[in-house]
Amino acid sequence: MEQLWFTAILNRVFGGPLNGLLTTLHIHVKDPAHPVTNAFAMELLVVLILLLLFLAIRASLSVEKPGHLQHFAESIHEFVDENFAEGVIGHDGHHFLPFLIALGMFILLGNLIGLVPTLEAPTASPVVPLGMALFTFVYYHFHGVKKQGIGKYIMHFMGPQDPSIPLGIRIFVAILLFPIEIVSHCARVMSLTIRLYGNMFAGDLVTLAFFSLFPIVLPAVFLGLHIGVSLIQAYIFTLLASVYLAGAVAEEH
């Protein structure tokens, strides 16, 4: 695969030390001369852009004279809070706002950056959605265990534990449901990965195909569709992360 200009810069500056580190760790690299891939380079670029944006927002904060950038940040904060944190997770949802905002903005910018000439969408590479899905998986399980304790959290995987239900039935249901729940939670990683990767990869292919066939008018329509798909996929991924968090930290009454 041809290197992007940003990937080439990273390989030129950090390729040698990075390859030495990977060799020391006994990690095989397909191209030792160019250990940095396009997907990793685009991920890094997205992170750098977001860091600069967050720093700019922090520097422009003002109670008396809020600027356009502050209004933009407050709108994002309010949207995520109403639709995901408080709207889905509930009363303690504000604790997860930093994670949800960072996750949603990373996915959205990662989807949209592919529209910039000479750049690619990192989410169109399977390893990036997989990494975000695994991180989300670990994150919501960690907070579930943190809030409820390991014993009580595991009981979530065993069905209802109402004392009015005979013990034998509860044990039978727990034995039946526990492996199903484990497979279901593991399948969430695959579901999050395939949904995001499949949509972004297909969107990139369709856009490139129509650009090569009709380079003037028609591609603009597919660029609009690409933007729409990017927004929808960022929304769905963040929504599902909120749903998983809500299930992990929920307490039975």
Description:
The protein starts with a helix and ends with a helix. 74% of the residues lie in helices and 0% in strands. The relative contact order is 0.11. The radius of gyration is 22 Å and the shape is globular. It has one domain. The chain is built from 8 helices and no strands. It is mostly helical and 253 residues long.
Task: Give a quick rundown of the structure.
With 253 residues, the chain is mainly α. The protein has helices at 5-24, 38-60, 68-89, 97-112, 127-148, 150-155, 167-213, 218-249.
Mean pLDDT across every amino acid position: 88
The number of domains: 1
N-to-C CA distance:
55 Å
Percentage of residues in DSSP E strands: under 5%
What Rg do the Cα atoms give? 22 Å
- Uncertain stretches of 5 or more adjacent residues: none
Shape type: globular
Number of strands: 0
Structural class: mainly alpha
Secondary-structure element series: HHHHHHHH
Number of continuous helical runs: 8
Helical residue percent band: over 70%
Described by strand count, sense and barrel closure, the largest sheet is: none
